[in-house]
Amino acid sequence: MIRVDLARPFARRLIPLVLISSGLFAAAVPLAFHLEGRRELATSARAAAGQVARVVELAMTDRPLLWRYDATKLGEQLQVAGLGNLDGLEVQDSAGRRVAMGSLPKGPAVWGRADVVMEHQRLASVWVANRLGPLWGSTGLVALLCALLSVVLGGALYLYPVHTVMRAETRIAALLAERRVALQEEERRRIARELHDGAGQAITAARLQLLALRQQGLPASSAAAVERHLDEALEEVRRSTSALLPAPLAELGLLGALERHCATYSQATGVDIALEVPSFFPELPAALQTAVYRIAQEALHNTIRHASASRAVVRLQADARTLALEVDDDGRGFGEAATCQSIRERVAGLGGAVDWPEAGSARLRVTLPLVGGEA
Amino acid sequence: MLPWALLAACAGDPPPPAPVDAKGVLAPTPDALLAMGSGAATPLLQALARAYASGRPPLPVHVEPSVGTGGGIAAATDGAVDLGLVGRSLRPAESVALEAFPLALDAVVVAAAPDVERQSLSREELRQLYAGEHGTGLTLLLRDPAETANDALERAYPELRALRESGAASARFRVLNHDDAMAHALLTTPRSVGVFSFGAIQSWKLPLRPLALDGLRPSVEALSSRRWPAVRPLSIVFRPERRARITPFLAFVASAEGRAVTRAAGYLPLPEVTP
Description:
Largest sheet of chain B: 10 strands, mixed
Shape of chain A: rod-shaped
Oligomer: heterodimer
Largest interface: A-B, 35 and 33 residues
Number of helices of chain B: 12
Radius of gyration of chain A: 46 Å
Low-confidence stretches of chain A: none
Order of helices and strands of chain A: HHEEEEHHHEHEEHEE
Strand content of chain B: 15-25%
Helix content of chain A: 55-70%
Structural class of chain B: alpha/beta
C-alpha cells in the first residue's frame, strides 16, 4: 500500500491556528460583553444623574440657599419616586462642597454626571454611580461559557479539516495504488506484446526457415533437434506472455475469462465450480479486471489445494461504489497461509479489503473500490 | 491596545472629586431672623413669629418650610439660618458650635384621617397596626427613620421600634418624609392613621383627629400633668455669636405673651429660661 503522509503535517500546522482562533473567541466575546455592559451602565448612570439634577434644580429654584439642608430628605424622596436603585449618589455645589443627598458606592463603579445649570451658571453637579460588581459576575459567567464553547469550537476546527485531509489522504493513496497497478499492467502488456511480436515471431520465422531447410535436404535428425529447441523456446515465450497478460482476459473479458477458467479448472480437478454473476455488471478498468481474475485464480487454487473441497462457488457483486468477489466452498478450510499474502498485497494495492469471516475458513470475501478511495 | 481604548470609552464619566471641607460660616441675613428645622416646631415658630411681628421688632422672624431636625442643626451650624428648630436634645458633636434654648414640649400622637370614626387606640391595637395586622381596619402611614416623633412614641411603646423598622424595610407601609407630606397623606388616604405632632394639628387647624391612647386623650393639660406618654422637647439652636441678634426674640418666647402663644398653639411651654 502506498503511504501518503498529508494529515500529520497539516495537523501540526493547524494547531497554532486553532489555538489562536479559539483563544481570540474565548477572550473577545467576554470582553465585548463587558464593554457593552459598561456602556449601558454609563448611559443609565448619566440618565439618572440628569433626572436627579432636574430635581435639584427645582429645589434650588424654590430655595436657592437653603435647599441643601433638605437634601437628605430629598434623597429619600428620590428613592420613593423610583430612583432608589442607584448604587451611589454624590452632589456637590459650585464650590465643591458635598450636599448630603446620598452615599458613595461600595466598590468600583461606573459614574454618570450631570450639571445643574441656571442662567448659564453651574450651580451644582450630580454624580450617579452604577456598581461594577454584578457586571463582573455576569462577565465571569460569560467567560466561562465562552471558554467551554471555545474548547468545543477548537475541537471542531481541528478535527473536521484533519479528518477531511485524512480521508483525502486515503483516497489519494488508493488512486496512486490503482495507478501503479495500471502502470504495472500496462508494462506487462507491453512486455507481453514485445515477446509475442518480437521473440515469438522470430522463433516462428526460424521454424518456417527450418522447415524449408528440411525440404531442401537438411538431415531430419539435425532438424528435429533444432525444431525441439525452437518449440521449447516458443512455449516459454507463450508461458511468459500468458503470465504477464492472461490471454483469456484479453480475448473474452473478465466474465468470459472467469467462466472459462471455472469450467477448465472444474474439468481438470473434478470439483464442481459455479460462477454467480449479477444480471448487470459494470465495465471495469483493465487493472481491476486483471486483479479480480488473478484473485479468483489464487482463491480457487487454494480451495482445491488446501481445502479438499468438492464444490466451490465464485460470486461477483457490484454496486455504484464497490465490487465484491466471494469464493466459498464446502471444504475443511485452511489457515491464513503464506499463499494468501499475494491476495492481500494485490487488494491492498487497490485500496480494498480482504475478509475471512471465520478463522481457518476457505471462504474468502474481497471488496474493491470502483472509484478511487476506500472500499 | 484597542481593548483598553474601548474600555476607556465605556468607562463613563470621571468620578466625583473629593469634596471641599468648608469651614466658613455664612453671613446672617441683614433684615430678618431666619428660622428653619423640625416640622413639629415650625407651626409653633410661625405662631410666635406672627405674634412677635406685631410688636414691630427691628428683625422680624421669617420661618422657612420644614427641613427636619437634622437640616435645622446643619443650617444653624453653617450660619445659613439664625434659628435652628430641633425636636430632640443636641448630641455632643452638635453642641460644639451651637447653643440650645428650650422652647416647648410637643405631644406625639396618632392622628386619624377625617373618615375614621374611631376615637382611641389601645396599646395592643397600636401594636397590631405596626405589625401590619388588619384587626383595626386602619392603614398606617409611617414617618422616615430620622423623624423625632418615632423616637418619642417608641420610648413610650418600645415594642413598636422593631415592628416599624421591619415594616419599612419590607415596604409594607408608605413612608412620608415631612410633616406637611404626612398631613396631606392623612387627609387624602381613606381610613389612615399616622404619627404626627399634636401642636401642628392645633396650630394649622388640620381636620385630623388625634386619637386617645389607652383611654387618655392628648392635650396640653395631659402634657402638663406628664400623663401623656409620647413627648418630645422642642428647642431653638443658634450659633453663640448670633446671640445678640436673636436675644429679643428669645426674650419674647420666654415672656408671658410668648408662653401664652405657645400654649394656644397646642404646645406646653417649658419653665422660663433666661435667654
